[in-house]
Design brief:
Number of helices: 3
Structural class: alpha+beta
Strand order of the largest sheet: 3-6-5-4-7
Radius of gyration: 35 Å
Number of strands: 7
Largest sheet: 5 strands, antiparallel
Length: 174
């Protein structure tokens, strides 16, 4: 499209130059010269428009490259390749592999015990991973009457998505 518009403009400029020479020699009507000028202006506008469309396409292509804002692994693709996505629409589910955490549902009475405990462990397949309480969410699940806590790994960590148990010792005698 750009090359076609460029060729048309070049032809229009050649015709305009010939028309100007012939008009000076009184061999061509002034009206024909005006038509050639008008055609050159139209062809110039088409070339500018083609360049703008190319620039728009280049910007659109740059926006097609999706990068994670952090070091992550793709968990799920929510959009197909080539599918249009609106701003803010989720197109992928990713997992931050540098800041893994444990999410656990605790009974209301256990939250304070876990918060006070210094020796918390995530146990999976007979491996123990030390964890530290990051946050206890300030909301109670109305169906289970549990609270969610999130814990960070202190050193080693399992693969993302590993199932296991949160273990601690209750320091108070029952």
């Amino acid at each position: 499209e750009h090359d076609v518009a460029k060729a048309r403009l070049s032809l229009a400029e050649q015709r305009l130059q010939r028309a100007e020479v012939l008009t000076q020699q009184n061999s061509l009507a002034v009206e024909t010269l005006d038509e050639r000028r008008s055609q050159r202006a139209v062809n110039h506008a088409e070339l500018v428009s083609a360049r703008a469309r190319i620039e728009q396409a280049n910007v659109a292509v740059k926006r097609c490259l999706v990068r994670s804002p952090f070091h992550a692994v793709l968990r799920e693709r929510l959009a197909s390749v080539g599918q249009f996505a609106a701003v803010g629409e989720a197109i992928a589910a990713i997992i931050d592999i540098e800041h893994l955490e444990v999410s656990a549902q605790l009974q209301l009475g256990d939250v304070d015990t876990v918060a006070a405990n210094q020796k918390l462990e995530f146990v999976s397949a007979d491996r123990r991973y030390p964890v530290a309480l990051r946050v206890a969410l300030a909301a109670v699940d109305t169906q289970t009457r549990n609270r969610e806590v999130r814990l960070s790994f202190v050193s080693d960590r399992p693969l993302s998505g590993t199932a296991g148990q949160l273990r601690w010792r209750d320091t108070q005698a029952h």
